[in-house]
């Protein structure tokens, strides 16, 4: 009798464990999304409307669906539309306006995100958007005056030179963000980085100058979607148009970062030796700031230019001689395209 009672108790414990494990089983299936429209690579113009159609399904109730648009860096460029299906299946059918006149021509990704109570799935569809054609509004010229004033002037389409505003400080480099209507100025010791509104001429944000000095060398800024700045104190920083830091990397102490360039998913930097040794052409991942590679050089970069087909045109000086080289950031290789003996590039 006692043995039978023990067997019954053991059986009850096993049944309880089985029932408990069933209740504790987690959802391992992610939602399924099939995008019907737009099709891959479909082209649109600002301000077109994208007709979005998709089928979504799941083993659990879908609690939330969202539709949005991101650029090739997966940064959102238009407001997200939210849907609440409260069902395991849902047919998405909506009109998504591409109405922002600031959107530039290029590749973008329309995405649909489906969520249930324990997981989510993102589905991306690559499309091409043709931005509103650009027209020349004016040319902006900066000049460093002897009294410590930076003059900001414009040249209109009629070639008239008109003063815009003045800045008290020193100058090393500048960039213009036409999309967000901003002028960026980098300095040596009085100015670190200042961002000015091109319409109101007001200072929108700035990074305070902090030692060690000098803060920057010439040609320290580059701009493509975001602003990047090389600092003489062993750092390279990247900022959004509102001044928010999005990228930073540390440079070894005996190297001076000068000319920089954004190339695809990389940032290229000319690292000049502070001790008279070899210089480097370094490549960093934009996502992490980690160095991918570097190539030893004997020149100082004057400018970088995108040459397509995984190639960058490097204009540089070697002592009193100018050189033009081709560099491939993917395999860290390069060759001299042109050597201008006794010619110095500015």
Q: Which short descriptors sum up this protein?
A:
346 residues; mainly beta; Immunoglobulin-like; Methylamine Dehydrogenase, Chain H; five-stranded mixed sheet; four-stranded antiparallel sheet; globular
CATH fold category name of the largest domain: Methylamine Dehydrogenase, Chain H
Basic shape: globular
User: What is the N-to-C succession of helices and strands?
Assistant: HEEEEEEEEEEEEEEEEEEEEEEEEEEE
The appropriate CATH architecture of the largest domain is: 7 Propeller
Q: Main β-sheet, in a few words?
A: 5 strands, mixed
- Work out the count of structural domains: 2
Please give the number of β-strands. 27
The CATH C-level name of the largest domain is: Mainly Beta
Model regions low in confidence, pLDDT < 50 over at least 5 residues: 10-25
Mean pLDDT value: 88
Gyration radius, in Å:
28 Å
Task: Provide the β-strand percentage band.
Answer: over 45%
> Which structural class do you get from the secondary structure elements?
mainly beta
What would a concise description of this structure say?
By secondary structure, the protein is mainly beta. Helices cover 7% and strands 55% of the residues.
Describe the fold and architecture:
It is globular and about 70 Å long. The strands form 7 sheets. Strands 2-8-7-4-5 form a 5-stranded mixed sheet, with no helix packed on it. Strands 12-13-14-15 form a 4-stranded antiparallel sheet, with no helix packed on it. Strands 16-17-18-19 form a 4-stranded antiparallel sheet, with no helix packed on it. With 346 residues, the protein is mainly β. It folds into 2 domains: 32-130, Immunoglobulins (Immunoglobulin-like, Sandwich); 139-340, YVTN repeat-like/Quinoprotein amine dehydrogenase (Methylamine Dehydrogenase, Chain H, 7 Propeller). β17 (226-231) and β18 (235-239) form a beta hairpin. It has one helix at 2-24, and strands at residues 32-37, 43-45, 49-62, 64-71, 81-83, 87-97, 106-115, 120-130, 139-144, 149-155, 161-168, 173-177, 182-186, 193-197, 203-207, 221-224, 226-231, 235-239, 245-250, 255-263, 266-273, 279-285, 291-297, 300-308, 311-318, 321-328, 333-340. 7% of the residues lie in helices and 55% in strands.
